[in-house]
Design brief:
Elements: E1 9-13, E2 16-21, E3 26-30, H1 33-50, H2 54-58
Antiparallel strand pairs: 1-2, 2-3
């Protein structure tokens, strides 16, 4: 499997961390930064498996 790197935006809202991968369009959340990033990583992996060419169109 090819390894890719993406920029992630992390913000805190109340007691949750919100993480976003703008290049792919995936968003997730968690009670800790580590949990949120792990969930985003999995969501992004699944998204890219289903739509492998989408990032080529979205990244400038």
């Amino acid at each position: 499997m090819k390894t890719r790197s993406f920029t992630v935006i992390i913000s805190k809202e109340d007691d949750m961390y919100i993480v976003e991968c703008p290049a792919v369009g995936t968003v997730d959340q968690g009670e800790t930064i580590e949990q949120a990033v792990a969930r985003l990583r999995e969501a992004t992996r699944l998204y890219l498996e289903e739509f492998p060419t989408c990032t080529q169109q979205r990244i400038p």
